[in-house]
Amino acid sequence: MVLDGAGDPSLLLGSEDVPPVLEDNAAGRSPFLLTCDHYGRSIPRMLGDLGLPATEFARHIAWDPGIAGVADALSKHLGAHLIAQRYSRLVIDCNRPPDAISSIPRISEATVIPGNEGLTRDAAEVRRRAVFDPYHRRIGEVIDRRLRDGVPTVLVSLHSFTCVYAGIARPWHIGTLYHRDTRLPPLLLKLLRDEPDLVVGDNEPYAVSDETDYTIPVHGEARGLMNSGIEIRQDLIADEAGQRQWAERLARIFGEIETALRAQRLL
Ligand SMILES: [Zn+2]
After folding, report:
1. Which residue from 6, 22, 106, 265 has the highest number of Cβ atoms inside 10 Å of its Cβ?
2. Tens-digit pLDDT profile for the chain (267 aa)?
3. How close is the Cα of 63 to the center of ligand 1, in Å?
4. Is the pTM of this model over 0.85?
5. How far is the CA of 38 from the centre of ligand 1 (A)?
Protein backbone atom coordinates (compact mmCIF):
# COMPACT_ATOMS: atom_id res chain seq x y z
CA MET A 1 0.00 0.00 0.00
CA VAL A 2 1.27 3.46 -0.84
CA LEU A 3 0.00 6.47 0.99
CA ASP A 4 1.05 10.05 0.76
CA GLY A 5 1.15 12.88 3.23
CA ALA A 6 0.60 16.46 2.13
CA GLY A 7 0.81 19.83 3.82
CA ASP A 8 2.16 19.64 7.34
CA PRO A 9 5.34 17.51 7.83
CA SER A 10 3.87 16.20 11.07
CA LEU A 11 1.46 14.31 8.81
CA LEU A 12 4.37 12.28 7.49
CA LEU A 13 6.22 11.42 10.70
CA GLY A 14 4.02 10.18 13.51
CA SER A 15 4.84 9.23 17.08
CA GLU A 16 5.73 5.70 15.98
CA ASP A 17 8.35 6.95 13.46
CA VAL A 18 11.98 7.52 14.44
CA PRO A 19 13.42 11.06 14.27
CA PRO A 20 15.39 11.58 11.04
CA VAL A 21 18.56 12.80 12.75
CA LEU A 22 20.84 10.47 14.69
CA GLU A 23 23.85 11.87 16.54
CA ASP A 24 26.74 10.31 18.36
CA ASN A 25 29.64 11.84 20.29
CA ALA A 26 28.17 15.34 20.09
CA ALA A 27 30.72 16.48 22.68
CA GLY A 28 33.61 14.78 20.86
CA ARG A 29 36.76 16.88 20.57
CA SER A 30 37.97 15.61 17.21
CA PRO A 31 38.33 18.16 14.38
CA PHE A 32 36.56 15.69 12.11
CA LEU A 33 32.80 16.17 11.78
CA LEU A 34 31.31 13.01 10.30
CA THR A 35 28.10 13.02 8.28
CA CYS A 36 26.22 10.05 6.87
CA ASP A 37 23.43 10.93 4.44
CA HIS A 38 22.46 7.35 3.60
CA TYR A 39 22.87 5.78 7.06
CA GLY A 40 19.37 4.34 7.42
CA ARG A 41 16.57 2.77 5.43
CA SER A 42 13.52 3.56 7.54
CA ILE A 43 10.29 4.44 5.78
CA PRO A 44 7.66 6.60 7.48
CA ARG A 45 4.68 4.38 8.30
CA MET A 46 2.53 6.76 6.32
CA LEU A 47 4.35 5.79 3.11
CA GLY A 48 3.85 2.04 3.55
CA ASP A 49 6.48 0.16 1.56
CA LEU A 50 6.60 2.62 -1.37
CA GLY A 51 5.16 -0.24 -3.41
CA LEU A 52 8.41 -2.24 -3.26
CA PRO A 53 9.14 -5.79 -2.08
CA ALA A 54 11.25 -6.08 1.09
CA THR A 55 14.24 -7.34 -0.93
CA GLU A 56 14.68 -3.90 -2.50
CA PHE A 57 15.27 -2.39 0.94
CA ALA A 58 18.35 -4.58 1.42
CA ARG A 59 19.91 -3.07 -1.71
CA HIS A 60 22.00 0.03 -2.26
CA ILE A 61 19.05 1.78 -3.87
CA ALA A 62 17.49 2.13 -0.40
CA TRP A 63 20.60 3.11 1.63
CA ASP A 64 24.38 2.69 1.81
CA PRO A 65 24.73 -0.88 3.17
CA GLY A 66 27.45 -1.31 5.80
CA ILE A 67 28.26 2.36 6.28
CA ALA A 68 26.24 2.76 9.51
CA GLY A 69 28.49 0.28 11.34
CA VAL A 70 31.62 1.97 10.00
CA ALA A 71 30.31 5.44 10.91
CA ASP A 72 29.37 4.41 14.47
CA ALA A 73 32.75 2.78 15.12
CA LEU A 74 34.79 5.52 13.45
CA SER A 75 32.98 8.17 15.49
CA LYS A 76 33.90 6.30 18.67
CA HIS A 77 37.54 5.71 17.68
CA LEU A 78 38.11 9.34 16.76
CA GLY A 79 35.87 10.92 19.38
CA ALA A 80 34.24 12.62 16.42
CA HIS A 81 30.73 14.04 16.27
CA LEU A 82 28.60 11.98 13.88
CA ILE A 83 25.40 13.35 12.34
CA ALA A 84 23.47 10.72 10.39
CA GLN A 85 20.10 10.40 8.68
CA ARG A 86 17.83 7.44 9.37
CA TYR A 87 15.34 7.47 6.46
CA SER A 88 15.79 5.68 3.16
CA ARG A 89 17.15 7.65 0.23
CA LEU A 90 14.02 6.42 -1.59
CA VAL A 91 11.93 8.67 0.69
CA ILE A 92 14.16 11.63 -0.15
CA ASP A 93 17.86 11.60 -0.96
CA CYS A 94 19.68 13.76 1.57
CA ASN A 95 22.67 14.17 -0.73
CA ARG A 96 20.74 15.66 -3.63
CA PRO A 97 19.58 19.24 -4.07
CA PRO A 98 15.83 19.05 -3.35
CA ASP A 99 15.06 20.45 -6.81
CA ALA A 100 17.10 17.73 -8.56
CA ILE A 101 15.13 15.07 -10.40
CA SER A 102 16.94 12.38 -8.37
CA SER A 103 15.92 13.92 -5.02
CA ILE A 104 12.89 11.63 -4.81
CA PRO A 105 13.72 9.05 -7.46
CA ARG A 106 11.02 7.54 -9.64
CA ILE A 107 13.57 5.00 -10.89
CA SER A 108 16.72 3.92 -9.05
CA GLU A 109 19.23 1.88 -11.08
CA ALA A 110 16.62 -0.23 -12.92
CA THR A 111 13.94 -0.35 -10.21
CA VAL A 112 10.74 1.66 -10.57
CA ILE A 113 9.61 3.12 -7.21
CA PRO A 114 5.80 3.03 -7.40
CA GLY A 115 5.36 5.18 -4.27
CA ASN A 116 7.34 7.98 -5.91
CA GLU A 117 5.41 8.09 -9.16
CA GLY A 118 3.15 11.04 -9.76
CA LEU A 119 4.18 12.70 -6.49
CA THR A 120 2.59 16.12 -6.06
CA ARG A 121 4.68 19.19 -5.20
CA ASP A 122 3.02 19.28 -1.80
CA ALA A 123 3.89 15.67 -1.07
CA ALA A 124 7.51 16.22 -2.13
CA GLU A 125 7.63 19.33 0.06
CA VAL A 126 6.34 17.35 3.04
CA ARG A 127 9.15 14.82 2.66
CA ARG A 128 11.67 17.60 2.44
CA ARG A 129 10.39 19.35 5.53
CA ALA A 130 10.08 16.14 7.54
CA VAL A 131 13.41 14.47 6.67
CA PHE A 132 15.81 16.54 4.56
CA ASP A 133 15.45 19.89 6.33
CA PRO A 134 15.94 18.72 9.95
CA TYR A 135 19.07 16.78 8.97
CA HIS A 136 20.71 19.63 7.09
CA ARG A 137 19.54 22.22 9.61
CA ARG A 138 21.30 20.23 12.34
CA ILE A 139 24.55 19.94 10.37
CA GLY A 140 24.41 23.71 9.77
CA GLU A 141 23.79 24.43 13.46
CA VAL A 142 26.68 22.24 14.55
CA ILE A 143 29.06 23.90 12.09
CA ASP A 144 27.84 27.35 13.23
CA ARG A 145 28.51 26.45 16.85
CA ARG A 146 31.95 25.00 16.13
CA LEU A 147 32.99 28.05 14.11
CA ARG A 148 31.68 30.38 16.83
CA ASP A 149 33.63 28.46 19.48
CA GLY A 150 36.79 28.36 17.37
CA VAL A 151 36.69 24.53 17.11
CA PRO A 152 38.64 23.31 14.05
CA THR A 153 36.26 21.49 11.71
CA VAL A 154 36.99 19.12 8.86
CA LEU A 155 33.90 17.68 7.17
CA VAL A 156 34.01 13.99 6.24
CA SER A 157 30.98 12.58 4.47
CA LEU A 158 30.70 8.79 4.68
CA HIS A 159 29.18 6.60 1.96
CA SER A 160 29.37 3.10 0.54
CA PHE A 161 29.05 2.00 -3.08
CA THR A 162 27.69 -1.13 -4.71
CA CYS A 163 30.20 -3.64 -6.13
CA VAL A 164 28.38 -3.89 -9.45
CA TYR A 165 26.38 -1.06 -10.96
CA ALA A 166 24.32 -1.54 -14.12
CA GLY A 167 26.31 -4.71 -14.86
CA ILE A 168 29.77 -3.14 -14.45
CA ALA A 169 32.04 -4.42 -11.64
CA ARG A 170 33.94 -1.76 -9.72
CA PRO A 171 37.64 -2.44 -8.97
CA TRP A 172 38.17 0.09 -6.16
CA HIS A 173 38.08 -0.82 -2.47
CA ILE A 174 37.63 2.78 -1.45
CA GLY A 175 37.29 6.12 -3.19
CA THR A 176 37.60 9.75 -2.22
CA LEU A 177 35.02 12.20 -3.54
CA TYR A 178 35.69 15.89 -3.59
CA HIS A 179 35.53 18.97 -5.77
CA ARG A 180 36.95 22.29 -4.60
CA ASP A 181 38.98 21.50 -1.49
CA THR A 182 42.70 21.22 -2.28
CA ARG A 183 43.89 20.58 1.30
CA LEU A 184 42.32 17.39 2.66
CA PRO A 185 41.74 15.23 -0.46
CA PRO A 186 45.39 14.98 -1.60
CA LEU A 187 46.48 14.02 1.92
CA LEU A 188 43.70 11.47 2.27
CA LEU A 189 44.48 10.00 -1.16
CA LYS A 190 48.18 9.72 -0.39
CA LEU A 191 47.62 7.92 2.91
CA LEU A 192 45.06 5.55 1.38
CA ARG A 193 47.45 4.77 -1.47
CA ASP A 194 50.21 4.06 1.06
CA GLU A 195 48.09 1.09 2.20
CA PRO A 196 49.58 -1.75 0.14
CA ASP A 197 46.41 -3.82 -0.16
CA LEU A 198 44.06 -1.11 -1.43
CA VAL A 199 42.87 -0.08 -4.87
CA VAL A 200 41.95 3.57 -4.32
CA GLY A 201 39.62 5.62 -6.52
CA ASP A 202 40.36 9.32 -7.01
CA ASN A 203 36.86 10.72 -7.46
CA GLU A 204 35.80 7.18 -8.39
CA PRO A 205 33.24 5.68 -8.56
CA TYR A 206 31.70 9.13 -8.09
CA ALA A 207 32.80 12.74 -8.14
CA VAL A 208 31.13 15.65 -6.36
CA SER A 209 29.22 18.33 -8.23
CA ASP A 210 26.80 21.08 -7.26
CA GLU A 211 24.11 19.42 -9.37
CA THR A 212 24.42 15.90 -7.99
CA ASP A 213 25.48 16.48 -4.38
CA TYR A 214 24.37 18.52 -1.42
CA THR A 215 26.32 17.82 1.79
CA ILE A 216 29.83 18.60 0.54
CA PRO A 217 28.96 21.65 -1.61
CA VAL A 218 26.65 23.22 0.97
CA HIS A 219 28.23 22.35 4.32
CA GLY A 220 31.85 21.86 3.27
CA GLU A 221 32.65 24.10 0.33
CA ALA A 222 30.25 26.98 0.93
CA ARG A 223 31.41 27.17 4.57
CA GLY A 224 35.09 27.10 3.61
CA LEU A 225 35.76 23.87 5.51
CA MET A 226 38.31 21.29 4.52
CA ASN A 227 36.23 18.37 3.31
CA SER A 228 36.08 15.08 1.49
CA GLY A 229 33.66 12.27 0.93
CA ILE A 230 34.66 8.66 1.35
CA GLU A 231 33.06 5.75 -0.49
CA ILE A 232 33.75 2.18 0.68
CA ARG A 233 32.79 -0.81 -1.47
CA GLN A 234 29.84 -2.57 0.11
CA ASP A 235 31.08 -6.17 -0.01
CA LEU A 236 34.01 -5.16 2.23
CA ILE A 237 31.73 -3.87 4.99
CA ALA A 238 28.87 -6.34 4.66
CA ASP A 239 29.44 -7.77 8.15
CA GLU A 240 30.44 -6.47 11.55
CA ALA A 241 34.02 -7.71 11.25
CA GLY A 242 34.50 -5.81 8.00
CA GLN A 243 32.92 -2.68 9.42
CA ARG A 244 35.18 -2.87 12.49
CA GLN A 245 38.33 -3.37 10.40
CA TRP A 246 37.52 -0.46 8.11
CA ALA A 247 36.70 1.81 11.01
CA GLU A 248 40.02 0.92 12.66
CA ARG A 249 41.93 1.52 9.43
CA LEU A 250 40.23 4.86 8.81
CA ALA A 251 40.72 5.93 12.42
CA ARG A 252 44.46 5.31 12.06
CA ILE A 253 44.56 7.22 8.76
CA PHE A 254 42.55 10.15 10.13
CA GLY A 255 44.87 10.24 13.12
CA GLU A 256 47.80 10.70 10.72
CA ILE A 257 45.85 13.32 8.79
CA GLU A 258 45.16 15.28 11.97
CA THR A 259 48.88 15.24 12.84
CA ALA A 260 49.79 16.40 9.32
CA LEU A 261 47.19 19.19 9.28
CA ARG A 262 48.34 20.43 12.68
CA ALA A 263 51.96 20.43 11.47
CA GLN A 264 50.85 22.57 8.52
CA ARG A 265 48.93 24.83 10.93
CA LEU A 266 45.72 24.08 9.06
CA LEU A 267 44.05 23.10 12.36
ZN1 LIG B 1 25.73 7.40 -0.04
Report:
1. 22
2. 444 444 566 679 999 999 999 999 999 999 999 999 999 999 999 999 999 999 999 999 999 999 999 999 999 999 999 999 999 999 999 999 999 999 999 999 889 999 999 999 999 999 999 999 999 999 999 999 999 999 999 999 999 999 998 889 999 999 999 999 999 999 999 999 999 999 999 999 989 999 999 999 999 999 999 999 999 999 999 999 999 999 999 999 999 999 999 999 999
3. 7
4. yes
5. 5
Rounded CA-CA distance 72/77 in Å is 9
Task: For residue 140, report the distance from its CA to the centre of ligand 1, in Å.
Answer: 19
CA 241 to ligand 1 center in whole angstroms = 21
Q: What is the Å distance from ligand 1's center to 105 Cα?
A: 14
- Whether residue 196 is preceded by a cis peptide bond, meaning omega within 30 degrees of 0, is no
Rounded CA gap, 260 and 265, in Å?
A: 9
